[in-house]
Design brief:
This is OsmC-like protein. With 140 residues, the chain is an alpha+beta fold. It is built from three helices and six strands. The termini are far apart.
């Protein structure tokens, strides 16, 4: 299966990129690099893709397990190499779950299934970076 996107230059350092679903997003860079911060930065967007991929897995698995949480967020940190081309050599994904009486065992199982089996973006990251994951449970 192939995915195809089109990315169109919109002037200066701004680009608009589509998605097979028809949604679009803007890509830009910082003023020190000639842009206006009017869009998402390409490398940081990769971290968002990683979180989005895994988050979709986790929510889907929790729904199938009939496990509910009040809130869920992921914080992803990427460490860039010093030399060009700069890429993420280490990435940490922190999963934060919030709620009363959290079923920590099932939630951790959902995270593990995403990390180890289902998240294709995480597998892509593993090809060039050390990926670490942590799960945190917050009682409300």
């Amino acid at each position: 299966m192939a995915h195809k996107i089109t990315t169109q230059w919109k002037g200066n350092m701004l680009f608009e990129s589509d998605n097979p679903t028809g949604q679009t997003l803007l890509i830009d860079t910082s003023p020190e690099n000639g842009g206006n911060n009017e869009g998402l930065a390409p490398k940081a967007m990769m971290l968002s893709s990683l979180a989005g991929c895994s988050g979709l897995d986790v929510v889907s698995i929790l729904n199938k397990m009939k496990v509910s949480v009040e809130d869920f967020k992921m914080e992803v940190t990427g460490e860039l190499t010093e030399e060009h081309p700069k890429y993420y050599h280490t990435v940490t994904v922190d999963y934060h779950f919030y709620g009363q009486d959290l079923d920590e065992k099932k939630i951790q199982r959902a995270v593990n299934l995403s990390v180890e089996t289902y998240c294709g973006v995480m597998e892509m990251f593993r090809r060039f970076a050390k990926v670490e994951t942590n799960t945190y449970f917050h009682s409300s």
